[in-house]
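Rotation project, supervised by the postdoc (A.L.). Task for the rotation student: set up a whole-complex structure prediction and record inputs and outputs verbatim in this book. Inputs entered:
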Amino acid sequence: MLDFFDVFLVQQLLNGLAQGLVYALIAIGFTLIFGVLNVVNFAHGEIYMLGAFAGLLAIQLLAPPAFAVLLLVAAAGLVLGVLLERVAFRPFRRFNDEASLKSKALREATLLSSLAISIITRELMQLYVGADMQSIPQAYLLMTPIQLGPLSIASGQVLIFVTALLMFLLLQWLLFRTRLGLSIRAVSNNRLGALHVGINVNHIIIATFAIGSLMGAVSGIVVGLYSGNIFPQMGFSPGIKAFVAMVMGGLDSIPGAVISAIVLGLCEALSTDFVSQGWSELISYGLLLITLLYFPRGLFGKKVERV
Amino acid sequence: MALLQVENISVTLGGVPILHEVSLQVEAQRIVTILGANGAGKTTLLRAISGIYPLEQGSIRFDGAAIHGQPAHRIVQSGLSHAPEGRQIFSNMTVRENLQLGAGAQRDWQQELAFVHDIFPILQQRSKQLAGTLSGGEQQMLCIGRALMAKPRLLILDEPSLGLAPQFVQQIFRVIETIRQHGVTVVLVEQNARLALRIADDAYVLEHGRIALSGPAQQLMHDAAVQNAYLGAA
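Outputs recorded:
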């Protein structure tokens, strides 16, 4: 009896880890973009959704090998990110004076413009393809069970784990080992300062959107093929969870967001296990509430600095 | 021909006119100071020169080439560096990273780094520290050092002594002299008008967005109006 329980618990923890990594995949791109603009990009969940649809389209039209699907989706994400920045963010970045850079009105305008793009995109997709789940060719589904002793994991869970790890490491490498990363961090830290040292701030912001959206789109297809659920609303709920993870992680800490996302996933799985399915949402938002009450800067946020 | 030639520029920000037909000339290898009360438009003038604010009219020529209308990053690359008001350093990044960013796209910046470390030895000691943990004076040194990393021919300093302890103010002014001796032209905006006039060759007085007075710094220092307004009646 005890043995059975333990195996069951470990299995649930594994499922929770996979779910948390799904949130982490979205949260990485989300946090990257937030860091540079200090504005929440509400359309990130839709990039995730469009990435899944782009992959599906590629599968239906070309039936390429799985790896090529990922590459095509990455390219689509890149283009979508540049477009999104141009339409929803650039128009609000005309001024460089401190008052405008710190203006709440401009920030909120940008926040709402990305929310608008998010709603319009979702509704348009619903109009054209319908709200139902899309059927995915069986060969592409990532649900092959892999047996590890008494435990069973799906091939998709492995792919999610590998993708999350790769993205995280690549991003850390990019941010801390490359010239582009240095500039991204500079723009994220102090945009006026970045202008003064001769950084082309617009290019850096576009590059950040391209990278973040590439990651969002790839996450969409990976999760879509694993869960088998590709539909216009698919970005909404995980997008909110990724947002929660970002806030819990301290807003601008990518490792913080990843850890918080995993904690969220694990808590949801355990609450489903020990209490009931309905409690999982309550537990994750409860965690957010507790974090905000006791760690207003997030679990991994910066300390106050000298000015 | 002057290194920097500003002619009849007007700047309007958010519908409010700030500068009205301002002209000034900066000869190579000189220190030029711009005096003026708070809100006179000094910082706006400097930012317009650096390409951060757009001009409504007028022209700016640097080393003979028109730079107005060019994006700020081009202007830095052409040899005009700006150590801005409020320092605007990258507080979450290390001192070394701040200096590296100052060097822009240059591949080899070791020579510039050595020069900056030579002027501000403390920055070498603090190399790995996050810039936000430095004291105010050290942050100001970092700000000037970062601007020097771009190997400028013209250096704009906006309020370098603001909020600093007296010994730091002395040190910053000594450094301005040193920088000039290395062939860099300096445009200095400074609250401490007495010190600024003492160090400068030429001076301009900005009042309500217009140039009210200009001339050799020595001459302005003895001008009755300047003494009353900026030096405190002696």
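Student's summary: The radius of gyration of chain B is 17 Å.
Supervisor addendum: The first strand of chain B starts at residue 4 and ends at 13.
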